[in-house]
Automatic annotation (TrEMBL):
Comment field on protein domains: Consists of two distinct domains; an N-terminal heme-containing oxygen-binding domain and a C-terminal reductase domain with binding sites for FAD and NAD(P)H.
Source organism of the structure: Paenibacillus oceani
UniProt EC number: 1.14.12.17
Domain FAD-binding FR-type: residue ranges: 152-263
Official protein name in the record: Flavohemoprotein
Keywords for the protein's UniProt record, in alphabetical order: Detoxification, FAD, Flavoprotein, Heme, Iron, Metal-binding, NAD, NADP, Oxidoreductase, Oxygen transport, Transport
GO MF term (any one): FAD binding
Chain positions recorded as FAD binding sites: 190, 206-209, 397-400
Known catalytic reactions: 2 nitric oxide + NADPH + 2 O2 = 2 nitrate + NADP(+) + H(+); 2 nitric oxide + NADH + 2 O2 = 2 nitrate + NAD(+) + H(+)
Gene behind this protein: hmpA
Domain Globin stretches: 1-138
Site (Involved in heme-bound ligand stabilization and O-O bond activation): 29
Length: 413
């Protein structure tokens, strides 16, 4: 436990972390990878280059400092990060390395303002915070390995089937190479895929939502090919999966993880909102709902640029025809000529509060949404404007977590 003096020092640094947190975490990763380049086999290089990981860590450090006297308040965030760490293979032995480089980054960025007293307080606080992470993650490792069909680390899966779902999204049906049972999962969870690319010396790990209901003899992931846009290069792993893997090839998977999951004990109406490839966990939830709760009202809302990039539309439409409790609504930002001729979408433009008020059957609904980050704050604000309670809003970011309070760009999928 931390004493009152240490807690007071940590809380006094909160304004500094708010202003210079990203600067500190950027320096932290520079120091970390310089002294321990082997950790580049764990971290997502694209998120590093785009600054997403630095921002996510800065938010986490800021939250830990602000709540240092009431750490149970950030336990949900700890568990969310711990799920990702377990699926990536972050272990207890990594924490001293992280702590050493975080303190060095604080000293480098703050200079003389980082007194010995402040550094010692942060060393003590980091030890307490790290112990919480280690304990939570160890229980997750034990659960992942000890469950029926579970395993430790990464397990070999064969691509049984590869299905093109749209111009940019392809599904991969994965079965265990050892033909042994596979672990169950909760709708909304993901797996980590570990790959080695022939033109790159690093191992790359990417997390993909499971896109079918649990209880099948396979896992299905549905991957968007991330093409180059402006200064952003094409996604190495997604491009390789689309263009260089075939049925019969082997992928390495972690056991399922994640805390963005469907509450199957809730009997109220449920609303599923997705944008672009964010429909993958939503389809897993939808398939589960129609299989296990056939009388529960479901509203499925999907936003896409147009029909050519709208994946799994025929599947969702078939479910809607077979299940009268399911209502579907599609929003296209820029419908093409084929879309306009067929009239198979319900709104042109973007999702907003006015439209959602006409679509959501009741504000007493449980709402799940997964959309690209610039769209997150828009959807969150719109749902609140509709009268949906904060406690009924459940969401997941693409990649590292960010803040829903950040100004939203006026772009949607």
């Amino acid at each position: 436990m931390l004493n009152e003096a240490t807690i007071a020092i940590i809380k006094s640094t909160v304004p500094i972390l708010k202003d210079r947190g990203t600067e500190i975490t950027k320096r932290f990763y520079e120091l970390l990878f310089s002294s321990h380049p082997e950790l580049l086999h764990i971290f997502n290089h694209a998120n590093q280059k785009q600054g997403k990981q630095q921002a996510a860590l800065a938010n986490a450090v800021y939250a830990a400092a602000a709540h240092i006297d009431q750490l149970p308040a950030i336990l949900p965030v700890v568990k969310q990060i711990a799920h990702k760490h377990r699926s990536l293979g972050v272990k207890a032995e990594h924490y001293p390395i992280v702590g050493q480089n975080l303190l060095a980054a604080i000293k480098d960025v703050l200079g003389d303002a980082a007194t010995d007293e402040i550094l010692q307080a942060w060393a003590d606080a980091y030890g307490v915070i790290a112990s919480v992470f280690i304990e939570v993650e160890q229980s997750m490792y034990d659960q992942a390995e000890g469950q029926d069909g579970g395993w430790e680390g990464f397990r070999a899966f064969v691509i049984q089937k590869k299905v093109k779902e749209s111009d940019v999204i392809t599904s991969f049906y994965l079965v265990p190479q050892d033909r042994k049972p596979i672990a169950g999962f909760e709708p909304g969870q993901y797996v980590s895929v570990q790959t080695k690319l022939p033109d790159d010396g690093y191992t790359h790990i990417r997390q993909y939502s499971l896109s079918d209901a649990p209880g099948k003899p396979y896992y299905r992931i549905s991957v968007k090919r991330e093409d180059a846009i402006g200064s952003r290069p094409a996604g190495k792993v997604s491009t390789a999966l689309h263009e260089k893997t075939n049925e019969g090839d082997v992928l390495l998977l972690s056991a399922p993880a994640g805390d963005f999951t469907l509450n199957r004990d809730d009997k109220r109406p449920v609303v599923l909102i997705s944008g672009g490839v964010g429909l993958t966990p939503m389809v897993s939830m939808l398939n589960t709902l129609v299989e296990t709760q056939p009388h529960r009202p479901v509203t499925f809302i999907h936003s896409a640029q147009n029909g050519s990039v709208h994946a799994m539309k025929e599947h969702v439409n078939r479910l809607a025809q077979a299940h009268p409790q399911l209502s579907v609504r599609y929003c296209y930002a820029e419908p093409n000529e084929a879309d306009q001729a067929a009239g198979t979408y319900h709104r042109e433009g973007y999702v907003d509060a006015d439209w959602l008020k006409t679509v959501i059957p009741s504000t007493n609904s449980s709402v799940y949404f997964c959309v690209p980050q610039p769209f997150m704050a828009v959807v969150n604000s719109a749902l609140k404007a509709c009268g949906v309670a904060d406690s009924d809003l459940h969401y997941e970011f693409f990649g590292p977590a960010a803040s829903l309070e950040q100004p939203a760009l006026q772009t949607q999928p």
